[in-house]
Specification:
By secondary structure, the protein is mostly beta strands. It has a single domain, classed as Macroglobulin (MG2) domain (Immunoglobulin-like). Helix content is 3%, strand content 59%. The chain has one helix and nine strands. The strands form two sheets. The chain has a five-stranded mixed β-sheet, with no helix packed on it. The chain has a four-stranded antiparallel β-sheet with strand order 2-1-4-7, with no helix packed on it.
Length: 135
């Protein structure tokens, strides 16, 4: 299994043709003060499997950790792949709303991982700045 892309954004959806719609990509946050409660946002990814891996359901973990390895968010998702004709790869697109309940108290790097078993398929990082400390 491969994760072709993983993004955090303000809104994600899917067109009738299957193509993703991603708006307001999130790479960094500049809150006026810390700690903050993150506003809900979307995490979107596309997963791909080879033909011999299709017709199965996989259980993935979505995790958010900070640069020190502290866990802020974890969710389990199930993804099912259907076999495509002519031995083509199969794809699954996931876009879900993320609600991080834990306050973000320190500036730094925060990472989202898509994990299958003990293998991290893809990661993306966003940075939280402390503007109050920069003044």
């Amino acid at each position: 299994m491969r994760c072709n892309f993983l993004v955090l954004c303000e809104y994600a959806a899917r067109l009738d043709t299957g193509g993703p719609v991603l708006m307001g990509l999130i790479r960094e946050l500049r809150p006026p003060f810390l700690p903050i409660q993150l506003k809900p946002f979307y995490m979107a990814c596309e997963l791909e499997v080879d033909p011999y891996e299709a017709e199965q359901t996989y259980v993935l973990q979505i995790r958010m950790i900070d640069q020190d390895g502290r866990l802020y968010y974890e969710q389990e998702i199930e993804v099912e792949f259907h076999r495509r004709p002519q031995m083509r790869a199969s794809y699954a697109y996931f876009a879900g709303l993320v609600r991080v309940e834990q306050l973000i108290e320190i500036p730094g790097d925060y990472r989202f991982d898509v994990v299958l078993g003990d293998q991290v398929l893809k990661s993306t990082v966003f940075i939280v700045h402390d503007l109050g400390a920069e003044e």
